[in-house]
Amino acid sequence: MALLAILHAAIAGFMIFFMVVVPQAAFKTLSAKAVGAFLRVLFPRLFLFGMVLALAAIGAAVRAGADWQLTASVLIAAGFAVNVFVLTPRINDYRDRDLAGDAAAKRIFGLLHLASVGIFLAQLAGSLAVVGMFLWTGSA
Description:
Elements: H1 2-29, H2 32-64, H3 67-99, H4 103-137
Helix pairs in contact: 1-2, 1-4, 2-3, 3-4
């Protein structure tokens, strides 16, 4: 159970670090064009990293016989997969269309981005729930 909690703490930790540090540093030090290029490289790696940690958490949950934590880990891994393989390519495509002057693309970009952020926040909440339960009861 401790390994499961550690993996979810790692997931929550890198997600919080990303939200608190990376965007502010990028927008403060890079041009708008450079920020765009940087984030297009960063996001897929960020989501893949999270997916690997969540897959490891699935293994730890199976080994520990942790039912709801297994469900949370599967959903978190699926969220990272959706973000990296489905949403990110579409977000980039619609952002390019928006920058090229396609007015309709701006709305779709916004909706896709909102969906991605929503998934990210739900994943963070799920990982924090696993860690919180471990801290509260001594078992994840």
